[in-house]
Amino acid sequence: MLILTRTYLISALGVGAFYLLGLPLPFLLGPISACLIAALAGLELRGQPMVNDAMRAILGVAVGATLTLSVVQSMGAMWPTLAMIPVMIAAIGAVGIPYFMKLWGFDFATSYYSAMPGGLQDMLVFGEEAGGDVRALSLIHATRVLVIVMLLPFVLSLGWEVDLTNPPGAPVASIAPVQLLLMVAAGLIGWQGAKRIGLFGASILGPLIVAAVLAITGILQSRPPAEAIFAAQFFIGMVVGTKYSGVTGHEVRRDVAAALGFCVIILLLALAFAELAVFWDLAPHLEALLAFAPGGQAEMTVLALVVGADVAFVVAHHLLRIIAVILGAPIAARIFDRR
Question: What is the pLDDT of residues 62-75, one digit of tens each?
Fold first, then answer.
């Protein structure tokens, strides 16, 4: 309990510091930064998995609520950029696997699952089954998410002058109580239902599906209030920062340093694919950048909501990336390992 309370307090201090300094996304980047600094200083930190899943459910409802009938009908036009996602994954793997093996001396299993831009939990499970270094995988993927989530807001605000101060939703007092109850029901039923049938990413995909059905049929007409999105940012940011709890000097010098170099590689590749999509007039610049940036699914959803991007477009590409990696990674790993 003491460790959890300490983690909440440090995260709250991070929010306050970002507000005072006028930095972007204080509820998301503040907890990430504060928990990262505390973890590197040797403090033990811990998140609350149940609360984190509940926050992801809020994001699922937020995305699902945007999928009105007109939006769903327009999704067929996304296929050219969606088709680019598997190509980008293959390019990341082709560069990333030799990078980790030849330059940093990791074994094949660790190198392969470090290079795959999938979800943290999925890559840890697959990597452990293949005999990889679970601690190294955890730090490498946590660093990937951390760097992308920390860097993108500054790129968007300083480079493109995107306003990141707009509230991500309407105030809770302005939303009809019936709509609030529908959103709570969609979150709980979707989360627990998806969990029972073993759907990957149950906490976010289950609520997304239920909320989408309600939105398409016109029953759900509101998105979660700003207060709920701010809470989701806070807890998700806190969890990203706590991944570094207990990190050692050796791990920083090897695992984290290797991850930072890999972040440069994948960001350049993602930028190249985003620029191709813009050049071919397949997507606007903002949506293309957010769709191809290989960060965490929940974190990219938060950014899309905050900057007012086409959330359905961004989430569809990240879902395909996660699905493609989960389905294809174990098969491809066996093929490459035999070679």
Answer: 888 887 777 777 77
Instruction: Select from 88, 128, 267, 124 the least CA-distant residue to 259.
Output: 267
C-alpha distances out from residue 121 to 70, 125, 204, 280, Å: 34, 6, 14, 35
Place of tokens 């398409």: 216
Q: Which helix (H) or strand (E) holds 61?
A: helix 49-66
* Cβ–Cβ < 8 Å for 114, 136: yes
Picking from 29, 52, 75, 15, the residue whose alpha carbon sits closest to that of residue 201 is: 52
Provide CB contacts within 8 A for 213, sequence distance 6+.
64
pTM (2 d.p.): 0.81
Q: How many angstroms separate the CA atoms of 263 and 261, rounded?
A: 5
How far, CA to CA in Å, does 53 sit from each of 34, 86, 127, 150, 204? 21, 27, 23, 21, 8
In terms of Cβ atoms closer than 10 Å to its own Cβ (0-12, 13-18, 19+), residue 85 is: buried
State pLDDT tens for residues 163-195: 777 777 889 999 999 999 999 999 999 999 999
CB 57 within 8 A of CB 211: no
- DSSP annotation of 223: P
Please state, in angstroms and rounded to a whole number, the distance separating the CA atoms of residues 122 and 137: 11
For 105, 140, 220, 307, the CA distances from 323, given in Å and listed in that order, are 29, 20, 27, 25
Q: What does each C-alpha distance from 57 to 72, 183, 230, 280, 336 come to in angstroms?
A: 21, 10, 13, 35, 36
Token digits for 76?
A: 């067929």
Three-class DSSP category at 44: coil
